[in-house]
Amino acid sequence: MDTSAPIDIELTLTHHGKPITLTFAQDATVVDLSERVASELSIPPSNQKYLVSPKIGLLKPPFKDPTLPLSSLQGKKINLMGSTTSEITSSTPPSPKPPPRAAPAP
Predict the structure, then answer these.
(1) How far apart are CA 14 and CA 98, in angstroms?
(2) Which of 5, 6, 35, 97 is the most buried (most CB within 10 A)?
(3) Residue 5 lies in a domain
(4) What residues make up the domain containing 59?
């Protein structure tokens, strides 16, 4: 058995209370995670936020450190917050603003 082959990284995200397990190459970065979430879950990067605990905190595109290796996130709890494009378009539009109030009479 060849043990020199790189071991893939497996991350489990929680999105809307459901666990989602994704596998990445050993050298994958947070940018790879964002691209995979966009393609497989239909959540565009502009809607993605990752709450990583303990210690790392909130990550969202564009990332402060796009080269952050996913190996540093292994074993951490990752909550994916974000809506798919279909969830956004199917939501009700915001209610119209009330008309401006008239200025009080002098």
Answers:
(1) 38
(2) 35
(3) no
(4) 17-84
Let me know: does 26 contact 8? Beta carbons within 8 Å: yes
pTM, 2 dp: 0.72
Is residue 27 domain-resident?
Answer: yes
Strand order in the sheet with 9-15: 18-24, 9-15, 77-81, 49-53, 57-59
Domain count of the fold of the chain: 1
The C-alpha angle with vertex 23 and arms to 17 and 28, in degrees rounded to 5, equals 115
Encode the chain (106 residues) as per-residue pLDDT tens digits. 455 556 789 999 999 899 999 999 999 999 999 999 999 998 999 999 999 998 888 988 898 989 999 999 988 999 999 887 666 666 555 556 666 676 666 6
